Amino acid sequence: NEVLTSNKSNGRRLKLQIMVLPPGLKFSIHAHPNIEFELTLYGTLREFRFLTFRMPASDLRQIDDNDETSPIGPDIAATCFFEEQQVPAGETLINEIGS
Questions:
Q1: Rg from Cα positions in the chain
Q2: 38 near 94, Cβ under 8 Å?
Q3: Smallest Cα–Cα separation from 48: which of 78, 21, 86, 75?
C-alpha cells in the first residue's frame, strides 16, 4: 500500500536506475532498504541470496552526520548458506525489504 499511496517503500522514494554491468561483476553482501524490482535486458543476472535471512526494515536505517537517513547492510557470518538464482534476459526479480 505504501508504494501505491506515496511512491515510497520503507520511507524511501522509489527511483529508476539503469545499470550496465560487466560480466563477472560482484556486489558486496547487502540488504535491500526498500523493495527492488529488477528486469534483465541483456545477458543473465546471477544473484546469490542468503537463505532465510530477513533484516527488519527498521534496522536498515541509520542517521548519518547530515541528519539524513541512509541504508545500512547486515552483519552476516561467513558460514551462512546462500542459494544462486539466475535471471535471464526478459525475466524479472523482486527483492523484498530486508532481503
A1: 15
A2: yes
A3: 86
